[in-house]
Each structure stands twice: as structure tokens, then as C-alpha cells.
Amino acid sequence: MKQNIESFLDLVRERNGHEPEFLQAVEEVAETVIPYIVKHDIYYGKNILLRMVEPERLISFRVSWVDDSGEIQVNRGYRVQMNSAIGPYKGGLRFHPTVNASILKFLAFEQVFKNSLTTLPMGGGKGGSDFDPKGKSDNEIMRFCHAFMSELFRYIGPNTDVPAGDIGVGTREIGFLFGMYKKLKNEFTGVLTGKGLTWGGSLIRPEATGYGNVYFAQKMLETKNDTIKGKSVVISGSGNVAQYAAEKVLQLGGKVLTLSDSSGYIFDEDGIDADKLAFVMDLKNVKRGRISEYLESYPNAKFIKGKTPWGEKCDVALPCATQNELQEEDANTLLSNGCICVSEGANMPSTKEAIAAFHKAKILFAPGKASNAGGVATSGLEMTQNSLRFKWSREEVDNKLKDIMSDIHKSCSEYGTDDDGYVDYVKGANIAGFVKVADAMLAQGIV
Ligand code: NDP
Ligand code: 2IT
């Protein structure tokens, strides 16, 4: 088995040696899915995984735009169209200076499995730019988004590829992107998700990733006859996913101790309650400030500069910022402080070594492709409502989201339960996600 995995990975490394994040994502899948392929004749010998690691299409383009001082700026735009076996490409757009082909290929690859798990008909894709939205005026953001879409529009469409938000892309950016797409195509369609509520957006989409992550954590805790109620929860990030994960933890009776951004984290021993969270939402979403400014209103809290929050004692940890933000030593600290459950809101926030530590300790651990799938699932529900030209109530969408998270939990348990009863959600998510896509690829032939 080891040899099967290694010879596959050697090939992938040879072709993608300069893409560490992509290789990290592929290694995790290969190690869990190849043993399953080897045991199942219908998948064996068909190079399905080799086909899945090669994007169907990778588009890279120039984005030139003019900043407020009249200077011409040039950024790089991308769309990775990874796999369309079970539906149109679907996945977010990330605007962050670190964006490159490796990061977008890892995200697009994970998205294929995640979207398959949602039970909805969506293929996988991801895109974005190395554009840094920090410190830009609304007009600069608009000009950049318009320039970006003036090229991307050729490659997407409601039945082809449906982008959404991710780091640095929220409702404001989706608005500008949608406006330019509509102008160029002269069509009002559901070509993007995460739209505003008055122009085709779905209720609960802004909340969905964070809420879904906590619903998933609840499902895992239920297997131990436990709940979020009364639990101390450490959260990283303070963007879309972190904010709504915090909101749901509070609604379910948990205590939120931390939030963070790339400058450091805040620790509030008294708990970040609903009023404090409303302050954070205004600070981050309207004023676009830094999390350290929390202390100006809540001086009892502490700001720990340049650090991640994993050193704080907690029952539950929700990494909701970015990839590889939780490393082996962080995992060991969390474990020695008594953490029993880690549910990833971000994509690939835990390193391979950190996951191995969680598995060794046999705590509840959910990989992002399962636990953060509520966001894209609700995007899928937005696509359905757009196609129907109809709008479901908040309660209807929330109930569908809960059902989907519960179904994902069930699929992970079905494929991921070890002989001793421990659920390896990484293995479960990878195999369950793989099976549906692989079956579709086999049915469609070599294309
Ligand atoms: P936002 O842009 O709203 O927030 C991102 C947060 O993470 C900010 O607090 C940001 O801090 C922090 N962050 C970003 N990059 C880094 C970094 N390199 N180091 C430390 N902190 C960082 O993005 P989202 O909340 O939407 O996304 C967060 C994560 O969740 C990402 O991994 C994303 O892929 C994933 N995700 C998002 C979904 C969605 O629907 N939005 C769905 C599923 C997953 P700062 O402001 O300082 O950069
Ligand atoms: O990583 C993700 O799943 C997202 N950023 C959301 C994608 C989407 O299409 O809603």
C-alpha cells in the first residue's frame, strides 16, 4: 500500500514540486483514498486520482486598474476549474497578497471533495488574485473588481462556473463583480453566490460557513453525549467565518474566549458576548479596523501581538482564519490543556503533523472540507433559489443547512469509522467525497 501511495505521490511531486500547499492537500487525500481504491475493483487501475489532481483548466490573466492617486496597478487574476464531473465548477474567490497557483490549486482540489459531500450537484473550482484589499478605498475596490471581472466573465456562467467569496471577498466585492458581469453579458443570472438580499442573495449565506461549522461540532459532540453548552471555545480569525461561528457558539450557550487577525489575538476572560460580537462585526465589516482595537472598548481584554490563540485553555477550538495556522506544537498545547474537539472553519488550517497529534489522542477532529461545507452548501441553495426565481425564508434555509451538515457528518462516519470505533473524519470526508465524483467520472468516460 505504501508503495502505491508513494509512486502516485512521486508523479504528483514531479509535476507540481513548486506547489507546497497543493502537494499537502493531495498527500492527505492520497493517503486515505488510495487504500480504498486498492480494495475496490471498480476504481482500481483507472488513474482516477491522477485525473482528479490535474485541473480541467487553469486560467491566469492580467488585471490592470488605476488607483486613487492615478497610478496604474497590475495584479494577477486566476480561476482554477478543477473538476466538473458532478456539476458546474463552484468555489470562492480569494483576494490576498499570498495568492498564487499553489494556494488556489489546493483550495480548488479540496473544494471538489467538499462540494461532493454537500449532497448538491456542484463541481469544484477556486480563483482570486494577489490583490491586497487592505487599506484600499471603496472606489479602488470597485475599480479592481470591475477590471478582474472584465476578463473572468469569459470563463464563467450560471451553468459553467459560479464563483463566490473567500478571504478578502465579501458582499461588497461580490456586488461589484456581479455588476460588471451583468453589464458585459446583459443578463441577470445567478452567476455568483453570496449576493445581497435584494439582488438574488440567499438568507443565511453570510452566516452559513460559521453556523455550519458549529452545527458540525455539535454533531461530533453528540456522539459523546455532549454539547457546546457551557464549553470554552477558542476561535481564530475575525472575518466572515469566525464572526458567525462565534455567534452560533453564543446562541448554543458556549463561551467565546478569543478572536484574531494576522496581527495577533484578543483574549477576553469574561467571554465575547453578543454585544461585544456586534462591536467586532462593526469594527471588521464597516470600519474595516484591526482586532487589537477591541481593547479600546473592552480594556479588560488582552491583545497578544503576533501570536495565534492556541495557547489558551479551552474545550473546543475553531480555527477560522487561514491555512497552516495550527501547527504540531499548537496541537500538543491544545491537547495538554484538555481540548476535546477541533472543528475547522478555515480551509486546511491544521498542518499534517497537527492532525496526526489530534488523531493519536483520539479527540474529535473535523477537517474543513467537511465542517466548513455549510458555506458552499448554502451557495448551492442560493443557486437553486435563483433558478427557481424564488426565495426561501431564513428558517427554511437554516433547516436545510442543518440537515446538510448532519448528512455530511453521517457520510464521514460511514466511511471513516475505524475498527476501534474512533471516527477518523479526515478519512471519512475524503473517501465519501471521492466516491461520488469518481462514479460520475467513470460513467462519463475518459474526457
Ligand atoms: P475574511 O477575509 O472574512 O477573514 C479572514 C480572517 O482571517 C481575518 O481575520 C484575517 O485577518 C485572517 N487571516 C487571513 N489571512 C491570514 C494569515 N495569513 N494569517 C493570519 N490570519 C489571517 O475570510 P473568511 O472568514 O471568509 O475566510 C476564513 C477562512 O475560511 C479561509 O480559510 C477561507 O478559505 C475559509 N472558508 C470561507 C468560506 C466562506 O464562505 N467565506 C467558506 C469555507 C471556508 P487579517 O484581516 O489580518 O488578514
Ligand atoms: O471555501 C469555500 O467553500 C468557500 N469559500 C465558499 C465557496 C462558495 O462557492 O460558496
TrEMBL record:
The active site is at residue 126. Substrate binds at residues 90, 111, 114, 165, 379. Pfam families: ELFV_dehydrog, ELFV_dehydrog_N. Residues 202-445 form the Glutamate/phenylalanine/leucine/valine/L-tryptophan dehydrogenase C-terminal domain. GO terms for molecular function: glutamate dehydrogenase (NADP+) activity; nucleotide binding. CDD domains: NAD_bind_2_Glu_DH. NAD(+) binds at residues 209, 240. One of its GO terms (cellular component) is cytosol. Keywords: NAD, Nucleotide-binding, Oxidoreductase. InterPro entries: Aminoacid_DH-like_N_sf, Glu/Leu/Phe/Val/Trp_DH, Glu/Leu/Phe/Val/Trp_DH_C, Glu/Leu/Phe/Val/Trp_DH_dimer, Glu/Leu/Phe/Val_DH_AS, Glu_DH, Glu_Leu_Phe_Val_DH, NAD(P)-bd_dom_sf. The keyword Magnesium does not apply. The record marks 166 as: Important for catalysis. The keyword Amino-acid biosynthesis does not apply. Belongs to the Glu/Leu/Phe/Val dehydrogenases family. NCBIfam families: PRK09414.1. Homohexamer. This is Glutamate dehydrogenase. The lineage of its organism: Bacteria, Pseudomonadati, Bacteroidota, Flavobacteriia, Flavobacteriales.
